[in-house]
Design a protein that fits this description.
Blueprint: H1 3-15, E1 20-25, E2 28-34, E3 39-44, E4 49-55, E5 73-74, E6 80-83, E7 88-91, E8 107-108, E9 113-119, E10 122-127, E11 132-137, E12 144-145, E13 150-156
Antiparallel strand pairs: 1-2, 2-3, 3-4, 5-6, 6-13, 7-9, 7-12, 8-11, 9-10, 11-13
């Protein structure tokens, strides 16, 4: 397990509001736990590796301008965006030979699966949080995406 993978785990912990996670892989046992002060404590006694505190990113205040969400952000033009809730790889369909979940021009409902973002070998279904018509697919299939990056542009209904 390298530093990049540990940072990705920390991001996933913060994005999903997890207080503790324990992972065992290739003989390495890693336990991450948030302290009461919001810091992440990393311990791995089997490998004599310990970092006592890694500051957790500060969560923005709810309702703050520019706060990315999985969906529902609207620009001044009235267009909505479905944004990536995590870092990963964007997939338009459940398998390479399957049809995409949604197409441009299609109306999507709240809770409808619109794509998959793979993060750390986990396939995460991304669901729309707004009802509307897809006007643009903002990412190419199998491309990496960042947290908060627009995946789809939607005309809200």
């Amino acid at each position: 397990m390298n530093l990049k993978e540990i940072k990705e785990i920390l991001c996933l912990m913060n994005e999903n509001n997890l207080n503790e996670i324990e992972i065992e892989r290739d003989g390495l046992k890693l336990k991450l736990k948030k302290s009461s002060g919001g810091e992440v404590v990393l311990r791995s006694p089997e490998t004599h590796f310990a970092v006592e505190s890694i500051p957790a990113p500060k969560a923005p205040a709810s309702g703050a301008a520019g706060t990315p969400s999985a969906a529902g952000d609207q620009s001044a033009s009235g267009k909505g965006e479905i944004k990536s809730p995590m870092v990963g790889t964007f997939y338009r369909s459940p398998s390479p030979e399957a049809e995409p979940f949604v197409e441009v021009g299609q109306t999507v409902e709240v809770g409808q699966v619109v794509c998959i973002v793979e993060a750390m070998k986990l396939m995460n279904e991304i669901k729309s949080e707004i009802r509307g018509k897809i006007t643009e697919v903002a990412v190419q299939n199998a491309e990496p995406v960042e947290f908060g990056q627009a995946l789809f542009i939607i005309d809200p209904l």
